[in-house]
Amino acid sequence: MIHTWAWIGWLISALVALSITRNPLYLFLILLCIALVGWTQERRLSSESSQTQNLLPFSPFKFVLVIITLSALFNAVISHFGETVLFSLPEWLPFLGGPITLEALAFGAINGLVLGGIFAAFTVLNLALPVRSLVRLIPRAYYPVAVITSIAITFIPNATRQFQHIREAQAIRGHRVRGLRGWLPLIMPLLVGGLERALGLAEAMTARGFASSEGGNQTSQTRLGMVLGLLMLFGGWLLRLIEGGQLLGIGLMILGITLIAAMLWSIGRSVPRTNYNQEIWRFRDFLVLIGSMVVISAFLLPIPWIDQSTLHYNPYPILNLPGFDPLIGAATMGLLIPIFIIKPK
Amino acid sequence: MTKRFSTSRLLSFLTYGVTTSMGLILLIYPFLFPAITQKSTLGQARLTEMPLLLTLLLALCLVVLLYEVQGQAVDTKLIALLGILVAINSALRFMEVAIPGPAGFSPIFFLIILTGYVFGGRFGFLLGVLTIFVSAIVTGGVGPWLPSQMFAAGWVGMSAPLCRPLVNKLDGEGKISEVIILAVFGALWGLGYGVVMNLWTWPFIAGPADQYWQAGISWVETLQRYGAYYLITSLAWDFIRAAGNFLLILLLGSPTLIALRRFKHRFTFTYRSSYSQGSKLDQKGDTT
Questions:
Q1: Contacts with B, A 81-100, CB within 8 Å
Q2: Which residue of B has its CA nearest to A185?
Q3: pLDDT tens for residues B18-62?
Q4: Torsion of the alpha carbons at A205, A211, A214 and A215, rounded to the nearest 10
Q5: DSSP state of A140
Q6: Residue spans per domain, chain A
Q7: Which residue of B has its CA nearest to A243?
Q8: CA B209 to centroid of chain Cα atoms
Q9: Which domains does chain B have, with CATH numbers?
Q10: ipTM
């Protein structure tokens, strides 16, 4: 329902917000927004009785809670900073011995909120976009990679089915999987059958005019341009680590990314691509994008009436209440816009 | 022709060198730049922005390296072969997600190492990268960890031909010594993959900033802290992956190598279209 690039914009805004703030109030708010969008998306999918979207054998949002808990416990055990001591582990325990503090627990939980938020945002994207949309995101310059990916995605159900058939056939012959050696009669027919199929597919592709091309659409200029772009990016990153080199570093990084993007665009122009189902950019996609830009602006741009000092928070050395700017809180609601667009059927 | 060939080789060498060393430096930068990072004014903000920045840089390294590899290693037959092998390996990974094995055990490296060894480093790299990519798309595992996973799995496949000199030295092709060398190689990468993946997350999820980049911290101390972190959190997990790789290659390696070599020979043919006057277009296959 929502355009792929609008979803990408939404994801970027969530990631930017999550990576900039360490304030647990904002982090919790961001996570709540992501969870609500994910929940709405799940409801839509279940109403459509989709079979392929959620293949994970666990609930991703319960997994986020596990990440937060584990991260808090882990940090409390390995980091013994902070003034509010809850209890102490014996000093003779290597790496673990020492005071367990409330501040270390809070710091770990904040890390967990960030990690969990990143995981949840990507989970929502995985729920929202069908496989074909993700494959379509592969740039045209990577035409061979896109073809390999398409072949693989098409053949995965086939490979899984073939594995089941082999397992059943071997079971009829009395074979039982006992240890790793028991996998040999299952893996080898799967592999050899797959290789035979690859041979047939190669012949069929050639017969239908899919010509092989040595070197493809590569030229010395594009290859050199890509490497130069990468070196500029790396140089910029190094400069950013040095005091006083931040602005120059950012400039160099932007230049490097632009050069790589320009090379990819230039290579992609020579590769024709057609889409059976053309995605249409609608007004609602603009709304999602505007919501995302509001979030990015509030967290990233130096807007005078927004108190961006509240974005930073450190529970050390003693736990204190984090600040909260209602304007940043309100801007975070921009992440919720997909909820009003996603409608269960 | 020779000049063009040498320029192409030089560019290829440059791309491999720059991307691989950059990827490595990005992962081990806490050990290399204590002097730079301690002067950094980014402080706490560095901790939060660095993982995403590293993801972006690693992803772009991968983008450049993938562009180089795909242009040199791919033709119709290899596209078909890679597509099917990626499908088989992704199906194995899907089974791993659906029916988790013990701790870090994963059946995917076995095929990446053996195909990289038989078909060459570029093929192994593509199989590693695309297995992780395709299985992530299918199982909903797309995330910021993906570039590091793809890079690490690509390195596994790309480095597999490094076993060849040792195999040749022992005159072990087709013998058990070849399988043992590859099994040990797989075990080392079982641990190495965990180390690479930890390096991506370590500066992010571990304790407060002054634990890692406080003024005066040396690379030795950084190494000690990373060692302690690795011992506590990952060694047991990675050891099971290493043992799994070792046993899978040891038990299944020999017949798999035979099958892969047989198909490598069968795939070594070229299509030549010939058009004679008044006759239809036909294709001839001749084994070269």
A1: 81, 95-96
A2: B252
A3: 888 888 888 777 676 654 544 444 444 445 566 677 778 888 898
A4: -90
A5: G
A6: 4-139+274-341, 142-207
A7: B40
A8: 30
A9: 15-33+44-267 (1.10.1760.20)
A10: 0.81
